[in-house]
Amino acid sequence: MSFKQRSADEVQELAVALFEEHGGYLMVIATRNAGGSVPVGEEALQEAMIAFLRAFDPERGAPPLAWLTLTLKRECWRRYGRERFDRRVGWEIGEDEPGAMLDQLPSPGEGLEDRLAGLHEGRQRLGRLRPDERTGLGLFAAGFSYKEIAARQGWSYTKVNRCMREGRAALKPREAEAA
User: Fold this and answer.
1) Where are the beta strands (DSSP E) in the chain?
2) Structural domain tally of the chain?
3) pTM exceeding 0.70
4) pLDDT of 84-115, one tens digit each?
């Protein structure tokens, strides 16, 4: 028996043992990571087991259950994401319905002039911000935490907090502008 054949047999035995011992655990992981969908989870588990049989190399030292769990999660995410995307864009409007596409588009509810006025007002509010407030709010909007902003800018946590508080206050509409 060749080394490759022996390795394939070893992986097959390992796959059977993993499924017998941890099948319930793997199915729970699959269902959770497939958005609660049992059928998608089952399909992902089957694909992960096939990938395990094809690609797992016991000589590399990777823990087999961890390898299989990670592969399973990735397969679930791929399938769940594709299923959600297909559901979102899967509807079609019939060709026999002229103008139906326009009926499906949401109306903005305001004219171009109103939107331009709102844009001008927004620019005025942003103009009231000090540079540090603009930087702090921009980094916070980009997803940085207060601690990360402080470390990135070399500021104290108190300065970040003050810039955020005063910056938000400056962005609120003033009474004179609202009237």
Assistant:
1) none
2) 2
3) no
4) 554 444 444 445 554 444 454 455 555 667 76
